[in-house]
Specification:
By secondary structure, the protein is of the alpha+beta class. The chain is 35% helix and 20% strand. The strands form three sheets. An eight-stranded mixed beta sheet has the order 1-5-6-11-10-9-7-8, with helices on both faces. A five-stranded mixed beta sheet has the order 13-12-14-15-16, sandwiched between helices. A three-stranded antiparallel beta sheet has the order 2-4-3, with no helix packed on it. The protein binds histidyl-adenosine monophosphate (HAM). Histidyl-adenosine monophosphate binds next to β6, β10, β11 and α10. Histidyl-adenosine monophosphate (HAM) binds next to β6, β10, β11 and α10.
Length: 443
């Protein structure tokens, strides 16, 4: 029996999970500021949702999907991304009928791709993404860039590089693909087996090939910019102007074509190499799509969105020393001095939790030394000591772990005392109390 982790997966536990929570909650709160609502879609979908076109040229769809038959013989796939699922949810739930656009969705959760694991590349990883659907203009496109850029900046990434490209409208892409076929056909024997196939399915993908010999051929290939229609050029110019207006630094990179087939107009990615040289690939990427909702059975609605890879963001923050300070210590560690005091310690810890404090009771008979050792290890602010004397006198001893100052506190005064320690003074006795318990007139 093999109880190892499945290759390409990883546990996120303890402190690391707290960092992930912090990163995720920053993304969520920012998305909510921009008016996005959460979409929680299933992790399994019918395979056809992702394999909509048998000529799909993306590696993700052709080679990396976790696709299987369930016991009823249906072909299901573990979602390899969130965008198609959001589009399906919009169509299935007919969210378009009220004509109230844009529909703004954010999502967070695991996605699955059968890729070769390496630094920053997993087979199960977390994506946070947004989709803005129903308004087809550069303002929507740029709003997604602003949101993603601000999110990365707020996490502390400076020197961010936004790479942006324009794939144009259908007409522009068709003309460009023809030019690429013309350019690469005589070179086919020098190309890698994947690119030979890409030439047939979607020559745009050759631009993205990572094989050095093919990259050399790509250098001399026609450039997308030369094949953009007037409308696409104008739209891209407006996009760039908006980026300048909001002060987002960008670099136009005609090598960015993105790994999925649904894109049109703008595509973008964030790259970041840490000071120590860690490069985990793109932190996130996205772009505009014209036909996805229609392909999934809905009306013709354009959309735009991006997704971040949370593992990549975490590992770069860690490498750069940018992880936020965790506030994960205990407010109180309640320490029974002797077997007889354990029950009281157990109850006091619960009382403190109900007041909103993070508290732990030691529920074994332990020496002072080991109890204080534990309290220190857990980053505790105050120890609460209960011995037989305290039991008898209906009190506890509260000890400040930093200053070592000890105070005897009667049980009946404990609430007021601990609130005062954390600046949550209750002025019940002044008759003008606004504390949580009393603000509604309860006394
Ligand atoms: P994607 O570029 O395939 O786009 O993935 C988005 C991000 O997920 C990547 O930039 C990267 O940070 C992370 N990522 C991708 N593969 C892996 C992996 N194997 N391990 C760890 N992280 C990974 C999409 O998925 C599109 N749905 C984005 C989008 C939304 N476009 C429009 N709307």
């Amino acid at each position: 029996m093999n109880f190892q982790l499945v290759k390409g997966t990883h546990d996120i536990i303890n402190k690391e999970a707290r960092y992930y929570q912090q990163i995720e909650s920053l993304f969520i709160s920012l998305a909510e500021l921009y008016g996005y609502n959460e979409f929680r879609t299933p992790i399994i979908e019918y395979t056809e949702l992702f394999k909509r076109d048998k000529n799909d040229s993306s590696d993700m769809v052709r080679k990396q999907m976790y696709e299987f038959n369930d016991l009823g013989g249906r072909s299901l796939t573990l979602r390899p991304e969130g965008t198609a699922s959001v589009a399906r949810a919009i169509v299935n739930n007919k969210l378009y009928v009220e004509n109230d656009f844009p529909i703004k969705a954010y999502y967070i959760g695991p996605v699955f791709r059968y890729e070769r694991p390496k630094a920053g590349t997993y087979r199960q990883f977390l994506q946070f993404g947004i989709e803005n659907i129903g308004i087809d203009n550069p303002y929507s496109d740029v709003e997604t860039i602003i949101l993603s850029f601000r999110a990365l900046k707020m996490l502390g990434f400076n020197n961010l590089k936004l790479k942006i490209n324009c794939l144009g409208d259908q007409e522009s892409r068709d003309n460009y693909k023809k030019a690429l076929v013309k350019h690469f056909t005589p070179l086919i024997d020098k190309m890698c087996p994947d690119c030979k196939e890409r030439l047939k399915l979607n020559p745009l993908r050759i631009i993205d090939c990572k094989v050095p010999a093919d990259q050399e051929l790509v250098k001399h290939a026609p450039k997308m910019g030369e094949y953009l229609s007037k409308a696409s050029k104008d739209r891209f110019a407006k996009t760039i102007q908006l980026l300048k207006d909001v002060g987002i630094p960008y670099e136009i990179d005609e090598g960015i074509v993105r790994g999925l087939d649904y894109y049109s107009h703008i595509v973008y990615e964030y790259e970041y190499i840490s000071k120590s040289g860690l490069n985990v690939g793109a932190l996130g990427g996205g772009g505009h799509y014209d036909n996805l909702v229609k392909e999934i059975g809905g009306p013709q609605l354009a959309g735009v969105g991006f997704a971040f890879g949370i593992e990549r963001i975490y590992s770069l923050l860690k490498d750069e020393g940018l992880l936020p300070k965790l506030n994960d210590g205990f407010d109180f560690m309640v320490m029974p001095v002797g077997e007889k005091c354990i029950s009281r310690a157990f109850i006091v810890a619960d009382f403190l939790r109900m007041l909103g404090y993070k508290a732990e009771a030691i529920i074994e008979n332990k020496s002072f030394k080991s109890m204080f050792h534990k309290a220190e290890k857990r980053g505790t602010a105050y120890a609460v000591l209960i011995g037989e004397n305290e039991l008898k006198n209906n009190e506890v001893i509260v000890k400040d772990m930093k200053t070592q100052k000890q105070t005897n506190v009667k049980n009946k005064d404990l609430k007021e005392y601990v609130n005062s320690l954390f600046g949550h003074d209750c002025h019940c006795h002044d008759g003008e109390c606004h504390c949580e318990e009393h603000k509604h007139g309860k006394k």
